[in-house]
Amino acid sequence: MKKFDILKVKDYPVILEALIVDDENVVLEGVEHLQEKREDATVEKHVPFIEEKEDGYLVKVGKEVAHPMLENHYIQMIEICIDDFLYRKYLKPGEAPEAYFRVPKGGSICAREYCNIHGLWSN
Ligand SMILES: [Fe+2]
To answer: What is the CA(22)–ligand 1 centre distance, in A?
Structure first.
């Protein structure tokens, strides 16, 4: 396990994030380490797409076709990691499946999102 890993508590509707990990070999009981998926095989697109803007970054879920944002199927959060900073936006059904992060530019950039049906995705 490493910093920023996402964990699902078994039998509970709770998802946790590893904030600080001093021993990467630690194995926790009662939690499932969610693996980030990176390739879409379904009609709905999940891989987050990052667009660099003048004063930050726009992260969209679904580059050409937006992911659904229905009551029973939607993107719950979008994150962008910029160097050692992590920024997150929580979304609700009906909102656009995207997040604008007005933040300083960085060298190392990645994005993740969590779909309540299809799980964790990264670019
Ligand atoms: Fe989905």
So the answer is: 33
With vertex at residue 50, the alpha carbon angle to CA 49 and CA 51, rounded to the nearest 5 degrees, is 120
Q: Phi-psi region for residue 113, left (φ > 0), alpha (ψ -120 to 50) or beta?
A: beta
Question: Taking residues 118-123, what's their average pLDDT?
Answer: 94
CA 33 to centroid of ligand 1, rounded, Å? 19
How far apart are the CA of 101 and the centre of ligand 1, in A?
22
| pTM for this model (two decimals) | 0.91
Diameter over CA atoms, the chain: 44
Neighbours of ion ligand 1 (CB under 5 A): 44, 115, 117-118
Does residue 107 come out as left (phi exceeding 0), alpha (psi in the -120 to 50 range) or beta? alpha
Q: What is the mean pLDDT of the segment spanning 38-64? A: 89
